[in-house]
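Need residues for this backbone.
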């Protein structure tokens, strides 16, 4: 079990020591039982007095508030002396943060140690697929002070984990480890009373975390809806990586459905996704202008980027200026030489 070591030693002068000796009735003290009970002192905690004399040692443990018969004067003196000790707060020597983030690929295991002089970090991938990243730097004095000022030792001691309860490889598990006077206390990240400290630790850890890999575009769908027309009024391109599927439909089924699958060169897909990743999706919203309000129809562009799906509609043939190069690629690769009619897009 972890216990805090002594924080302070105090020298007694000869007069004080002589006074203790004069108040000691050794025979009466030895006659006291090793454990003294007190019916009125339940729940108050315990304390003890141990005296060694002439090669013999006797310890008496008693509840706080209990009186030791025959040793009351000595007990009072020792309690007054104990009360004069001013116990300083523990001086933090180092703080370690460890977490194995759940549901995350890549460098999901984080290990950062901060002490007054240096900060060390190591980010690793449990699967071994990503190269680990490590480093160190001088700890800024203000950063260390920010940590030490919000350590709440009662909460730390209350939440400290036994050593065997740590789990290095358990996904979703993490702890803070505080070292003081050559002792270490491990506290789970969800322990009560440490949230202010955890927020400060995370703000410092974020300075060393490797940047998240950029989100990738995995799918692009472009649809042209020409409204009321003769022929293939709805044409669609479905880009999935380097595969492109072209489809065309006639609303009145007077023309056969078209489904064409073809391969796309890697450089074309890369250029298309680079152009789309820099578009101002949030500024556009879901519509630009009045899609479909003219007899030229509307274009609908959908892009799957990471967990997000961007979608915007616009009037044909007036896409946003920033989509000009994108539309050139879509027009080039979405062209079907023979749509099956002489004028598939002619309006009624």
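Answer:
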């Amino acid at each position: 079990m972890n216990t805090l070591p002594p924080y302070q030693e105090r020298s007694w002068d000869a007069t004080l020591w002589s006074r203790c000796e004069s108040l000691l009735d050794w025979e009466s003290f030895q006659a006291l039982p090793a454990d003294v009970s007190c019916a009125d002192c339940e729940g108050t905690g315990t304390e003890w007095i141990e005296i060694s004399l002439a090669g013999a040692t006797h310890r008496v443990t008693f509840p706080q508030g209990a009186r030791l018969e025959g040793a009351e004067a000595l007990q009072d003196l020792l309690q007054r002396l104990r009360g004069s000790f001013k116990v300083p707060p523990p001086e933090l020597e180092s703080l370690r943060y460890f977490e194995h983030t759940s549901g995350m690929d890549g460098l999901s295991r984080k290990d950062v140690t901060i002490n007054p002089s240096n900060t060390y970090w190591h980010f690793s991938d449990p699967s071994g697929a990503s190269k680990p990243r490590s480093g160190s730097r001088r700890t800024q004095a203000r950063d260390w002070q920010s940590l030490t000022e919000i350590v709440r030792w009662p909460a730390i001691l209350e939440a400290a984990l036994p050593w065997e309860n740590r789990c290095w490889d358990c996904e979703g598990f993490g702890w803070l480890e505080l070292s003081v006077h050559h002792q270490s206390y491990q506290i789970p990240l969800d322990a009560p009373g440490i949230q202010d400290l955890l927020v400060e630790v995370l703000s410092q850890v974020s300075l060393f975390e490797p940047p998240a890999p950029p989100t990738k575009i995995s799918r692009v769908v472009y649809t042209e809806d020409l409204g009321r027309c003769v022929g293939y009024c709805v044409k669609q391109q479905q880009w999935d990586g380097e595969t492109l599927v072209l489809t065309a439909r006639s609303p009145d089924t007077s023309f056969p459905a078209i489904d064409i699958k073809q391969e796309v060169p890697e450089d074309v897909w890369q250029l298309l996704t680079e152009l789309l990743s820099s578009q101002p999706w949030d500024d556009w919203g879901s519509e630009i202008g009045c899609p479909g309000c003219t007899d030229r129809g509307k274009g609908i562009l959908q892009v799957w980027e990471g967990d997000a799906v961007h979608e915007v509609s616009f009037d044909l043939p007036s896409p946003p200026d920033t989509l000009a190069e994108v539309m050139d690629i879509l027009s080039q690769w979405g062209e079907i030489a023979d749509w099956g009619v002489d004028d598939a897009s002619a309006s009624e």
